[in-house]
Amino acid sequence: MSHLLDLEGVSKRFGGVQAVDQVDFHADQGEIVGVIGPNGAGKTTLFNVVTGFYGPDSGKIRFDGNNLVGLKPNQITKVGIARTFQAVRLFGAMTVLENAMVGQHPRTRAGVFGALFHTSSTRSEEERVQAKAGAALDFFGDRLSPRLNSLASELAYADRRRLEIARAMATEPKLLLLDEPAAGMNPAEKDGLIELIGRLRDEKGYSIVLIEHDMPVISGVSDRVVALDYGKKIAEGTYEEVAANQQVIEAYLGKSATQGQT
Amino acid sequence: MTAPATSSRRLRFERLPLRRIILISLSIAIVYGVVAGSAATLRMGTFTAADWRSLVINGIARGSVYALIAIGYTLVYGILFMINFAHGEVFMSGAYTAFFVAVAFGRSGYLNAHPLVSIGAILIVSMVTSTLVAVILERVAYRPLRGAPRLVPLITAIGASFFLQYTFRGLYGAQARAYPTINVLQGTWTIFGVEILRTQVIVVVAAILLWIALFTFVAKTRTGRSMRAVGEDREIAALMGINVDRTIVATFAIGGALAGAAGILYVFLFNQVIFTMGFFPGIKAFTAAVLGGIGSVTGAAMGGLLLGVLEAVGPNLFLTGVGVPSPNQLQPVVAFGILVLVLIFLPGGFLGAPEEKRA
Amino acid sequence: MRAALSRDNVRAGLIGGVTVLYLALVGMIERFQDRDVITDVIGLGTLLILIGLAGTGYMASRPPKPRPGRKPVTANPALIGLVAGTTAGVLAGAVILILELLISAGVDVRSVLASVTPGMLSTMEFGLGPVGGALILVGLGAALGAGAGALRLLSDQLRDTVTFTLTAVLLMSLMEPILSAVLDGLSLPDRWLYEGGGLTVLGAVLTVVAAGAGRWFWKEREPQRKEAVALLPADRRTLYRKLAVFAAVAFLVVLPWLVGSFISDVLGTVGLYVLLGLGLNIVVGYAGLLDLGYVAFFAVGAYATGVLTSPASYLVREEGQLFAEKGLTNFWVALPFVVLIAVIIGILIGAPVLRLRGDYLAIVTLGFGEIIRTLVLSDWLAPYLGGAQGLLNVPPPPPEALDLRAPQNVYYLILVFCGIAAFVAWRLSDSRIGRAWAAMREDESVAEAMGVSIIRYKLLAFAMGAGVGSLGGVFFAAKIGSIFPNSFGLLVSINVLSVIILGGLGSIPGVIVGSAVLVGLPELLREFAEFRLLIYGAILVAIMILRPEGLVPNKRRQRELHARDAEAELSVIVTDEATS
Q: Which residues pair with C483 in a beta bridge?
């Protein structure tokens, strides 16, 4: 069976820096893949290449039968890949509900005519958007739903991370890319996150790729772990295998003297 | 809330969007128009070689003025990342204020008795006025807006531009005024067998000298280094002990002084002041700055010269052959057309750093 | 007293003095003096001086912001006001005295400073001659400064009532052209209220009493009123809101018959700017694209109307038979084609440039505006567009019986256009499209990651704005009947931009308020006309610095601007490797 997401020999260069170097990568239906690597290893660039923010210099990217190379970010979202950002980027001036409603954008079609004349299809679509956005927020129990009308910028930090995931869920993806979802969380919140990522797969059927520095989170959720360093894939396998890999240890130890571990 | 069926997801996306089609046809049309128009004009032979030469020289002189104003845009943009839309008014304020000094000198006969001293004094008054206006502008209008969303300072600058224009209209009156004639500047010099207006020679030489002075200043002095550091990263510069506020004021002051000098050179060429005189040279200088790559001092100079020449030669060269009557009316179309094309096809200009994809 | 003599207060006084002198030297004080506030008592120019001096004291006595490392200076606000006001008075008086000395020494000051006229000097001197004038400026500075500072000592309610009452007198006086026209229209006497362009003494006293008492009790009842409103059941509140909207519409419909044809004409111009403002608001307010060349679409609308309907135009002249036979020169038939043409031009202009960053886009659109103006003015296109002579004889909209060129009728035309535009703007902003625009405005790349096609939504906003703008051009052609290239300069774009920024970006009521203030007022008060752009410029700067959300803010916009304050700290620390 072919993979859900399949990268072959993808490279991306910025000036003199080879940010992503001949990377093969895949994620299967229902799989949770962890991506690790020291800072600057090219993890986020990999996400940006997959989601269309950067076009790859070379290589193939296929997702669910579509060739993603040359598609724009919004088209890629429509094909079924949603993402969160390393630094939470919510629409701060919108309410919690409105943020999630924006996520429904690629799944709706109302145009100018519908907006002007409130046609019955537009009205039912708006109701559906509200319902689906509300459902995405309900997934987080009582964290977000009671605050539907608060501004996103007023939320506590961990709730902002949650809202970002809810907004991504509202795009109805098949594959969810999470960029350091545990950053800035306390240990209790991290445990909650591990459980949450499991539920996203089990209840929603998403496949998930996450970038994370936090090893307990990686080991807690990943079916498979991929390690990057200097843009190259240096190891792949279960968490235990990758953690025992000599190259991975060197990549981290070589840098741990200068960089604090998160 | 289950994910919809896969089949509905297999979407076909247009990979050649409308935008690209419009862009490509636009560039083909322009290239064709320019080439065919020029060829036709040259074949018609309406203009002699001497005509072309004088158009080019005219363009270079005018371009030198644009270049000096453009430096003000480029310096401010390099450090604050804002378009100082009111810079054209900074240019106007100096030339207009110095007009009264020139008149006083002219009336007393001092102007033609001691032309060098007079011109020096006029230049200094113009530079000081423009510098003051630029510094006050920064202090009152722009400083409170550091760190605001990008369009906020731009809108402020537009407001400041009109405020300054009409302030000077209120102060000095609405009518256009002619500078007194300076006898030494009249007539021509023959350089390499070509007769060139004295004013044009002086303007070009003065612009080159000022540009060299500025370049040395930015490259060699402490303030110049601070300016580059603040443009690179304001916070780190502040941590390194650079006084950011003072550096920004210095940037505005230098840009203002050059604009003041440009004002006098402009007067040498066009001989007239009016409160609206800053607006179009301002926009054109901005175009020049973008053309050369905004943020680059050398780029501003090259962009200014290129724009000046294109503006002087372009309409006649491209349009006469196609049968467009009075092509010089369309000069603004050439200037703005260049601006639009550069921004679309070469947003970094000739010498600027390539534009980041997303800011 | 020591504390009041601080450097800050003296500096505030100097700023105040410079402001008063500025107003005098740009000619405002003399020009405004032509208008009486209270006839034979005080003119607008004099009032401006007084406001300047009092304002100095009021601003200087602001409670100081707590600054780290500096002890808050506690001084009596009246004393602070006294010091600042006196300083301002001394500076203004001294400069006036110097100017007088120069003039008496035979220096032709006026050949440099055009506004230093005998009229200006006498207004500044309150008609008391150089020395007396300088002294009275100092005295007034001290008295008004101290008085304004003392306002800070009053209770909030009292201070609010005092400032409100003074503002009310000024507004009543400035409204003279409208109110006396209304009174005339209703055949009521107006001599008791207005005389010679200003309020009568009786009128002023009545205004003070009515405004003062009204405001005092309004403030007094405020808590109870708020409570009562909060207790209203939801359906009642909706009902009241509907009634209010209905009343507003009814008012707009009868308005031209209340105010007569001159003011109806002004209302037509205000309406035109409301229409243009609504269109530009879609582009700037909703989609966040700063368009400085909006006049281009206004011009396209007017010229397209002219070309399609005027007997003087090329199309009608050369292909006239065909056009006239098919009834194509009919205004109403041409209308949808004009809008369509504008939308297409909007897309053609927008498509190549909409990827540009915000500030570059602004300059490029400005360039397009100038290109279009240059083209319509050129000899090259003169056979088609009339060149410098313009396009004449655009027929008024049929049927003739309605006489849609009379000021009062043309008002209804613009009212209908504005109604359509406001409806379009409102429905769009409150829809999936509006959400996409808001998302794009806040964070383009995240919006894109949420599936919003940036290009498509920018183009949509640009095309919508173009359509509404062309409607403005259609109206202009219908109203004036001749189209001259000079009506389509950059200043139109700047005027419209000022209107929506003063009113509040993205706010529909804001457009109406902005247009009434910036377009209506200068039309009515000729004294303002000369300083229109000076005031616009000052307003743009002041609004951006002091109140970026405008006078009647759009809620979401306001939140954006304030959310930024809250998040500023965060965004400095976290720069996203992903998208920088």
A: C391
Chain C residue with minimum CA distance to A109: C432
Contacts of B140 in chain C (CB under 8 A): 541
Structure-token pair, residue A16: 């003199």
C420 → chain A, closest CA residue:
A116
Rounded distance between C-alpha atoms, residue C94 and residue C107, angstroms: 17
pLDDT digits (tens, 9 = 90+) for C118-161: 888 888 888 888 888 889 899 998 899 888 888 888 888 888 88
Residue C340 pLDDT class (50, 70, 90 cuts)? very high
Question: Judging by DSSP bridges, how do beta strands A32-36 and A81-83 pair with one another?
Answer: unpaired
Over residues C502-517, the pLDDT tens digits come to 888 888 888 998 998 8
Look at residues A86, A112, A63, A93 and name the one whose alpha carbon lies nearest to residue A179. Answer: A86
Interface contact flag, B1 A75, Cβ < 8 Å: no
Q: Which amino acid is at A162?
A: R
Q: What DSSP character marks residue A11?
A: E
Q: Which two tokens stand for residue B224?
A: 């110049």
Does position C278 have pLDDT exceeding 90, yes or no? Answer: yes
Among residues C55, C62, C16, C84, the alpha carbon closest in space to that of C148 is found at C55
Q: Are the beta carbons of C215 and C233 closer than 8 angstroms?
A: no
Closest-CA residue to B279 (of B85, B99, B137, B59): B85
Architecture (CATH level 2) of domain A5-80+173-256: 3-Layer(aba) Sandwich (3.40)
Q: Report the mean per-residue pLDDT for chain C.
A: 83
Q: What is the DSSP string of B258-273?
A: HHHHHHHHHHHHH-EE
In chain C, where the domains are located: 1-153, 156-231, 245-555
Residue C308: CB atoms within 10 Å: 23
Return the structure tokens found at B304.
């200014």
| Chain A: closest CA distance from residue B2 (Å) | 7
Q: Please compute, for residue C559, the number of CA atoms within 13 A of its CA located in the half-sphere on the CB side.
A: 16
Sequence ranges of the domains in chain A: 5-80+173-256, 91-155
Q: Indicate the pLDDT class of residue B90, thresholds 50, 70 and 90.
A: very high
Q: B186-215: b or e for each residue (b if 16 or more CB lie within 10 Å)?
A: eeeeeeeeeebbebbbbbbebbeebbeebe
Q: Minimal Cα–Cα distance from C117 to chain A, Å?
A: 52
The share of chain C scoring above pLDDT 70, in percent, equals: 89
Domain ranges of chain B: 68-296
**Nearest Cβ partner for C360 among B19, B333, B343:** B343
Q: Which residues 316-375 in chain C show a CB within 8 A of chain B?
A: 348, 351-360, 362-364, 366-368, 370-371, 374-375
Q: What local confidence, expressed as pLDDT, does residue B175 receive?
A: 85
Is residue C548 pLDDT above 60, yes or no? Answer: yes
**Residue B131 predicted with pLDDT over 90:** yes
Residue in B1, B9, B357 closest to A79 by CB: B9
User: DSSP secondary-structure letter at A32?
Assistant: E
* Helix ranges restricted to H, A205-238: 215-221
Digit-coded pLDDT (tens) for A72-128? 888 889 888 999 988 888 888 888 888 989 988 888 887 788 788 888 888 888 888
- From the list B150, B152, B160, which residue is nearest C548 (CB)? B152
What are the Cα distances from residue B263, in Å, to A99, B177, B268?
52, 14, 9
Would you say residue B45 has pLDDT above 80? Answer: no
Please compute Rg for chain C using Cα positions.
27
pLDDT value, residue C566: 47
